[in-house]
Hints:
The complex is a heterodimer.
Chain A: H1 16-54, H2 60-64, H3 77-108, H4 113-125, H5 130-142, E1 145-147, E2 150-153, H6 160-185, H7 188-196, H8 201-229, H9 233-238, H10 258-267, H11 271-304
Antiparallel strand pairs in A: 1-2
Chain B: H1 2-6, H2 12-15, H3 22-30, E1 38-49, E2 52-63, E3 67-71, H4 78-85, E4 95-103, E5 106-107, H5 115-121, E6 122-125, H6 136-146, H7 153-163, H8 167-170, H9 183-195, E7 201-205, H10 213-226, E8 231-235, H11 239-245, E9 248-253, E10 261-267, H12 268-273, H13 278-284
Parallel strand pairs in B: 3-8, 3-9, 6-7, 7-8
Antiparallel strand pairs in B: 1-2, 1-4, 4-5, 9-10
Helix pairs in contact in B: 6-9, 7-9, 9-10
Amino acid sequence: MTSPELPVEISLRAEGPVARRQMLSRASRYVLLGATLIGVGVLAFLTYDVVRTGGGRLDWDFLTTYPSRRAADAGLRSSILGTAWVMALTVSLAIPVAVGTAIFMEEFAPKGKALSVIRLNIANLAGVPSIIYGILGLAVFVRGFELGGIQLIPALGPSIIAGALTLALMILPMTVIASVEAIRQVPPSLRDGSLALGASRWQTVWHHTLPGAVPGIMTGTILAVARAAGETAALIVIGAFAFIAFDNSSINDSFTVVPIQIYNWTTLPQEAFRVNASAGIIVLMVAVLSLNLIAVLIRERFSRK
Amino acid sequence: MPNSISLQPSEIGQRADSGTFSGISLEAENVIVPNEPIAISIEDWNLWYGSKQAVTHVSLKIPENKITALIGPSGCGKSTLLRSINRMNDLIPTVRSEGTVSYRGVNLYGPGIDPVEVRRRIGMVFQKPNPFPKSIFDNVMFGAKVNGFKGNQNELVERCLRRAALWDEVKDNLKKSGLALSGGQQQRLCIARAIANQPDIILMDEPCSALDPIATLKIEDLMRQLVKEYTIVIVTHNMQQAARVSDYTAFMLTDERVTGHLIEYRSTADIFTNPKDKRTEDYISGRFG
């Protein structure tokens, strides 16, 4: 038995309004690609330019010698060390405060107007220009903070600890926001399960909320550190713009960091220092890129579990 | 306190509390008091989320070593009532309650009562299995550990997993993550976790609604086993389940007049064969809800 074929009366080709919509759809793809290419293109060009200029200057000596008046002898030793010191200190100051704040806001604080106001303010603080933090650091940490005749914070001078405190304040809002988001990602069912077993709030936070939030907190922190590692303005204001020809050994030392060293070189007239600056940029870029990569890897690794 | 609520138009029915609110006296006829010793006694319980009332004038006596089922359509307040029994509602901001829930004569909402202590004695199993992202062993041990368990851990874990009918399936792999188990196994793990605390009462909030029929059957068998030692209160949407496993059944309803009130409470055999209230009859025969 053969079924009779239906007569062909319709065409399923795009016609009229459908054709127009499909055209727009195809066109939008190229417009969006163009938008993306602007960013990527600029970045690619800058990278190319920097590598072409400074690539040849990169060698082990460049990383391990002190700065010098002669461009060919100058290196990043003291600024790399300074960056390492400041970053390590910044992270150890900022993380506990940020995570503590986030836990309090999400798990303990009474939900209400006050909390919303605080949350809004933290989000605002994350957008404050870094130079403002620099000025704050200069006034409060470098020169010390006195209130009503009582010295609340001693004058720390343009030291590593003053720089770290300033940068810690700067990355605090970002880190708090990242930690809050990470804590929110922990399913409420875990909290319920834990509390229903007679665990206290703190036990629940310690055993379930915090471990669940660690990848998010770490990712956020690393990204904040990457930002702080490239920070120049705030540190110049507090006086890290120094010629350092020794290895830092104490948090009270004066210091300089890689981005300031780069900035320093670009202000000098000799062409050879420009080459140094480019080489320094490559070093900084690789460092920041590695940090971002680590952040991505952590996220990948924990999200698969 | 309820006066502030009854000012709202939607709550007009309650304002007539003293005189014309016929529901109370009528319902009382259909709410029995079991002959067994009473584990949980709920007296005139009211609960609000913000300004919205979720449970209204519920009085219910839950007998020891029996399974009591709470049934009713979605939003009738049965889960809220269940969570009132171990103070899980405390965790929701804006919750306000009135009345008493007593456990062996102690008002759980009385002064100086610690919700953590309450939850240790009155465990809970949730609708969606929620094992911790830790090993099976650690899942079972968690509650016992935070409550200061000092004895032999291996022995406790084995005993609880055996009692939750999960031991044979997981005994070779206690280090495996609790999340790697099937849904039904996860739910049994959550039951094992709850009994590791040595509670007196286990609350179950639709424990089988995320499970397939075979896993459901296993949990139901398990409940019949557990009820010899524990008092179980279960919320279920599944009327066959209530009829199969429970000894007593409470039917709750939200209507245009009153939110979350108790319509009928009697032995499961009675309520399913001979419901006194028309609304109960309609519900269990599937005519509304």
